[in-house]
Amino acid sequence: MTFALNSIFQPALNVYLHTIEGETILVSVAGNVDHNGNEVFKLNGTGRTVWDLLDGKRDLQELMREISNLFDAPEPVIRNDMELFLKELLQRRMIAATPLSRPERDV
Amino acid sequence: MKLISIQEAYSRKFARQKRIPTLELHASGHCAHIGRISPGCRGCFEPDPFRRNILCGARCNASCSYCTERLVAEPDKDWVIRSKATIYKDSYMADYAPSSVSFSGGGEPLLYLGIIEEYMAIFREVEPRMKAKPWYFLYTNGILADNAVLDRLKELGFDEIRFHLGASNFSRQVIRNMAAAARHFKAVTVETPAWPPHRDKLFDTLPILNDVGVKHLNLGEIELKTHNLEKIAALLPEAEIYQCREAHLDDGGLVYDVMEEAAAKNYSYSVLDCNCFVKNMQRGSAKNVCREIKTGLYASYS
User: Fold this and answer.
1) Residue B214 burial (CB < 10 Å; 0-12/13-18/19+)?
2) Chain A contact for B88, CB < 8 A?
3) Mutate which of A14, A21, A42 to test chain B, going by most B C-beta atoms within 10 A?
4) Which stretches within chain A are classed as H helix?
5) What is the phi/psi pair of residue A20, to 5°?
6) B152-180: per-residue pLDDT in tens?
7) pTM for the full model?
8) Which residues neighbour B74 within 8 Å (Cβ) at sequence distance 6 or greater?
9) How far apart are CA A86 and CA B263, in angstroms?
């Protein structure tokens, strides 16, 4: 699963966030089941922060800038984690990625 | 114990059924009862992808020799998250209308009142998305069902409480709890096994059930599992068993004896033979077939 570098991200229409047993859980009505048969996707604290930033206005660079301000980690680590996280959400169809203009390259 | 054929086991049941003129047969004959059965039983005979039975936990305050459902461990956190997330997920589906929601064992549900409250809070939260309100019911051995607990269950929105009287050996206190419940809830049901050693106590209790306002008596045929087979064999070495979808203990006609007694005495509660045919329908795929042909396939409910 890839996305254009200048994509903006937003939650898919039928994905809902709930707090269950103290955990932040994404529930997908589309029911994409992962390789372990799980129908739910658990977000850690950082994941929740990123999720809240997926407002359909920010691209990867802007998301990284926001996260860098909030978390003390090297830029390559943040980029790698962010890309993996967004790709997994895309694979599960829990978010939508929309290129703003002609993509410079794919991620 | 003696293994008998299904031809023998079924023939006995059908012969007994013929002797009860008020017997009603629904769901292609899988549902055999007198009187109108509980709405909570609907999910056994009709396909309902949204019906939920919540397993509360493994601990129990009774020790039934025939226990079939004992969980070996408490549900872990991931299991609980999946269980609760499934309710949320279902609630966003079109035509979300669970016919019923029940809480049952593995252990004794009333040892887990906090968990019941958590789940009921979720159902209350998703109720605005339901097309129709489900029938909420709870199974219990009744030992902890005192007035305070019954009040709480009423506040939580339960419609029906089902008492497993055999678990307390038909304790007088549990019967008092059940009588109190009959004043609180839309329906009180006794759901207890057709366990031959309980025969005399069950018959002694039949008029009391009528007096206290029990609406339904569901007599479940004992299922034999690897963990209760030896215990039952030791207690009832002459018992007869047969294999259907599950392996069952033949009750020696106990359910139909009770039906005849209830019909003869004109008791007001229904009596359901919750037997191998019910399990076939409840747990098998048949109820998902021919669902468009309503007449005669499904039971009617009070």
Assistant:
1) buried
2) yes
3) A21
4) 45-53, 60-70, 75-91
5) -130, 130
6) 999 999 999 999 999 999 999 999 999 99
7) 0.90
8) B57, B58, B59
9) 66
